[in-house]
Design brief:
By secondary structure, the chain is α+β, with helices and mostly antiparallel strands. The protein is built from four helices and three strands. About 0% of the residues are buried. This is Antitoxin.
Length: about 90
């Protein structure tokens, strides 16, 4: 894992993307704080993801949407106030 300041990443952004493409993870810092992580993109082709979602939609039970909504409410309630406002 490589660590760069925001200034360094900005000045050599094409090289940073080249490194990510080769599998490197780059942490970007500003003022000594981690502000971003640049990682390689997942290698799943879009048609594979689309096919998976189409298959999964057939297999989901009718309560799935309600289950996801309920889980999101719990997470939202637990996380409220823990993330800085943008």
């Amino acid at each position: 894992m490589k660590v760069l300041t925001a200034t360094e990443a900005s000045r050599s952004f094409a090289a940073v993307l080249d490194e990510a493409e080769r599998g490197e993870t780059i942490v970007v810092t500003r003022g000594g704080k981690q502000i971003a992580v640049i990682t390689p993109a997942p290698a799943a082709p879009g048609r594979m993801v689309k096919a998976f979602l189409a298959r999964s939609a057939r297999d989901l039970d009718s309560d799935f949407e309600a289950d996801v909504a309920a889980a999101r409410e719990v997470v939202d309630d637990e996380m409220r106030g823990t993330w800085p406002d943008a």
